[in-house]
Design a protein that fits this description.
Length: 829
């Protein structure tokens, strides 16, 4: 009956855009409806926030309609689907992005204007969905946008943390972390699916059972909680396709309740039930290391089992056996965080579906693929076997069995080379026995991807050398990308208007390769003039923001020089600060006549430090201390300003990137797997000052060395430099700036001592001293170019023109063809 109805609906609505109309009048009517009946405020009196909620519900209705159409169509066509498993998604705000992708932003603005509201102001009412740390999580969000836009039949799965990434509050220059209460005022973008829930089991023991004469393992859990689905529709741009991001929240399970209530311990029973919710309560705020904590493991398994149960349930809805599973299901692991999914699917197939081991294993290997974001063997995730065995006893058994079979296979190939066998083993023996999640992922997946070309080279040489030699065909790379919808259309509408005008089409928003068409106009003085005007307006907006948050007034004639990203020693914010101190020192010691030649700079730094990362927190404090001195020095005035932007997140990036002239990407070569921030700046015509690292190497190839400022040691030079670093001569300029900090020029002498130590006496692991002179030269070249505004603008236009390779559309297309083997499935109605 349902398919009959779907068929009729398709015929009825085939010529129209669903039930809901998108003209300003219809939108306005719907907004008023939601003001009155959803937000429950009088239509004669509601404020910006209430208007935002009503508008969001109006958009959400349209998303739901498209979501239904898309899902019904996918179900009917039964294409191979991609399931993207990620413990982190940094979605940011949804309102602006949804209206852009639905193609109704102008209509919404009109509708609101007539009601006396400004669209842009309502956009500001929305908080960020910050369910992730940094690059990896934002990459997931960009890839979801591309999957929807390119019409791929995909679903994302993740965890609905009640508290996302902590809020960074700066008090007296020190970072303090506060909880992110992002759900406190409700979230109009999600749809709670109380009826879509799965039991999640923990602890307990494994027993053997005889069923029809066959022995099988049964896991008797010690604790059961419930995973409840929250769906977040992801609309594609220029298509009706709307895919789903399903996030799981933990709720107490109904099971076992009666018993505890009956024993009379009512209070404890209720409290224990509430404990279940802690599983999805908080995001781990470190983007590089996880120390085998039980809660983290619970989170991983919780989201993995709910997702795989859901995926298998959907598969079984239209298939009577598992013969076609890997032809219909591609499971993508975003880093090792979801890699227990390999074991969970194995467990379901052998224990619940009674499939024989070898067949189950080949189904698993054919379905799973894995992307690693790590550059060093030390950064790989390990889980203590004891912990895993107590929480997931059956899974540990399966891991041991997989490892045993893998070791047997390896012995046949490598002989009894025990050192190599132990390196490649999934189980790390030692005082504490660990499960190596990366090894598990490599063994259980048919493809392993790096996130840039040089990353794959590092995987081959350093991180997974033995595995790359064993299975060279498994290892590939897909250079990361960013979506131009959010990072250009949403965040820089004026630039987009200009680009469309000069290209004579908006088609580049879907077909990003068209951007290269800008190249032929790069020297056109009219375009250059308009290009500069757009930048100036964006800089004015940013300058207002800076003044509002810091009280510092900055001149838009100065070069806006930006470094925004997580604070890490390898990302070398400290190198930036040393460069700023050097610049300040030079200005202080300059004759008056020399000062007239200085290119004024506004240096902007933003980023969060992991709460337990002391050195990163000291870098933040140093930034504030240096800013305090510089910004209040009358000798310097507008020639140099330094601003720290607190609580850096996706929305802040959307404001800062379009208003930047220069952006810095300073990682010590060989430490950034890819880097995606640089791509967003590139799209927006900001010039890059960067090391040859990660995806920057490919950016250099694309736009040319002469359109950016490249400096520092290269990836292959770093290991040798590191060996020699204690004997390397440190440049005087470097020694001088470090001494200024050490001697207390910026106060807090004792506090900064350990920070100075990281770069002194041969301890300079990230080679700041080595790269310092080359960094200053690159900065000088940037100054010189900035004076020549024609040249600068030309380079800026060429940066945007050359950015198409760094769109996540390209990344997703490559994954679809080379890793997932999926095809578009475009909903026609
Ligand atoms: O993933 C990163 C980022 N920190 O999240 N790693 N992780 N995990 C890398 O360091 C970046 O280089 C990379 O661009 C990003 C996404 O692949």
């Amino acid at each position: 009956r349902r398919s009959g109805f779907a068929g009729r609906a398709e015929r009825m609505f085939g010529l129209m855009d669903g039930f809901l109309k998108n003209d300003p009048w219809s939108l306005q009517k719907d907004v008023m409806h939601h003001v009155e009946y959803t937000v429950a405020r009088s239509r004669f009196s509601f404020d910006d926030f209430e208007a935002y909620l009503a508008l969001s519900h109006t958009i959400r209705d349209r998303l739901i309609e498209r979501w239904h159409d898309t899902q019904v169509y996918f179900k009917r066509k039964d294409p191979k689907r991609l399931y993207f498993l990620s413990l982190e998604f940094l979605m940011g705000r949804s309102l602006s992005n949804s209206t852009v992708n639905l193609g109704i932003k102008d209509q919404c603005a009109d509708a609101l204007n007539q009601l006396g509201f400004e669209f842009e102001q309502l956009v500001e009412q929305e908080g960020d969905a910050a369910l992730g740390n940094g690059g990896l999580a934002r990459l997931s969000a960009c890839q979801m946008d591309s999957l929807a836009t390119l019409d791929f039949p995909a679903w994302g799965y993740g965890l609905r943390y009640q508290f996302g990434l902590f809020r960074q509050v700066i008090l007296d220059g020190f970072q303090h972390e506060q909880p992110d209460y992002w759900l406190n005022f409700g979230n109009p973008w999600e749809i709670e699916r109380i009826h879509v829930s799965y039991a999640v089991k923990f602890y307990g023991a494994v027993e053997e059972e005889l069923l029809n004469g066959v022995k099988r393992k049964v896991w008797i859990p010690g604790e059961t909680v419930e995973a409840v689905a929250y769906d977040n529709p992801i609309p594609g741009y220029g298509t009706r396709n709307t895919i789903n991001l399903r996030l799981w929240a933990a709720k107490p399970s109904g099971e076992g309740d009666m018993e505890s209530y009956n024993t009379g311990d009512y209070i404890n029973a209720v409290v224990n039930r509430q404990r279940a919710e802690t599983i999805s309560s908080v995001l781990y705020p470190d983007d590089r290391s996880y120390q085998g904590k039980e809660l983290r493991l619970k989170q991983q398994y919780f989201f993995v089992t709910a997702s795989t149960q859901d995926i298998i349930r959907r598969y079984k809805d239209s298939h009577s056996n598992f013969d076609d599973f890997s032809n219909k299901v591609a499971l993508q692991l975003n880093d090792t965080h979801p890699s227990l999914a390999i074991i969970e699917v194995m467990r379901i197939l052998i224990d619940e579906e009674n499939i024989e081991w070898n067949r189950a294993w080949s189904i698993v290997c054919d379905s799973f693929s894995f992307t690693t974001h790590t550059v060093s063997p030390e950064g790989l995730e390990k889980i203590p076997a004891d912990l895993l065995g107590s929480l997931l006893p059956r899974h540990l058994e399966i891991i041991y069995e997989i490892n045993f079979l893998f070791m047997e296979e390896l012995k046949k190939k490598l002989g009894l080379n025990y050192s190599q066998l132990s390196q490649m083993s999934i189980v790390e023996e030692g005082a504490v026995k660990n499960i190596r999640m990366a090894n598990l992922s490599i063994v259980g997946c048919h493809a392993v991807n790096g996130v840039s070309r040089v990353h794959l080279e590092l995987l081959k040489k350093r991180v997974f050398k033995d595995f790359c030699e064993l299975w060279p065909q498994k290892f590939q790379y897909k250079t990361n990308g960013a979506t131009q919808r959010r990072w250009m259309v949403v965040s820089n509408p004026n630039l987009c208007g200009l680009i469309s005008k000069w290209l004579g089409t908006e088609a580049w928003i879907r077909d990003v390769d068209l951007l290269i068409g800008l190249k032929e106009f790069a020297s056109n003085t009219d375009l250059q003039h308009e290009w500069r005007m757009v930048k100036r307006v964006n800089k004015m907006r940013l300058a207002e923001y800076i003044e509002a948050i810091s009280g510092v007034k900055v001149s838009v004639d100065a070069m806006f020089d930006v470094q925004i990203k997580r604070i890490h020693e390898y990302k070398r914010q400290l190198l930036n600060l040393f460069g700023i101190i050097h610049r300040y020192d030079c200005i202080k010691n300059m004759e008056k006549s020399g000062k007239t030649k200085v290119v004024p700079r506004v240096c902007i730094i933003g980023g969060k430090a992991a709460p337990g990362y002391e050195i990163a927190k000291k870098i933040i404090k140093l930034c504030h201390a240096v800013a305090e001195t510089i910004n209040n020095d009358p000798d310097v005035g507008d020639l140099l300003k330094l601003v720290f932007i607190p609580d850096y997140n996706v929305s802040v990036a959307e404001l800062v990137i379009p208003g930047s002239d220069l952006s810095q990407h300073l990682s010590t070569a060989g430490h950034e797997a890819s880097g995606t921030g640089s791509m967003k700046f590139l799209m927006n015509g900001c010039l890059l000052l960067a090391t040859s690292d990660g995806s920057t190497i490919e950016i250099i190839e694309e736009i040319g060395n002469d359109n950016m400022f490249v400096f520092g040691a290269k990836v292959d030079e770093v290991p040798a430099l590191r060996e020699m670093k204690s004997s390397l001569k440190v440049p005087l300029q470097f020694a001088r700036v470090v001494r200024m900090v050490r001697d207390g020029y910026f106060g807090h002498k004792d506090y900064f001592e350990s920070l100075c130590k990281t770069v002194e006496n041969g301890g300079d692991f990230y080679l700041l001293g080595n790269d310092f002179m080359s960094y200053l030269e690159a900065q000088a070249a940037a100054d010189k170019t900035f004076v020549d505004q024609e040249k600068w603008t030309r380079m800026s236009i060429l940066s945007s023109a050359g950015s198409s390779r760094f769109s996540s559309d390209r990344t997703i297309q490559e994954y679809a063809e080379k890793t997932w083997n999926i095809e578009p499935c475009k909903c026609p109605f």
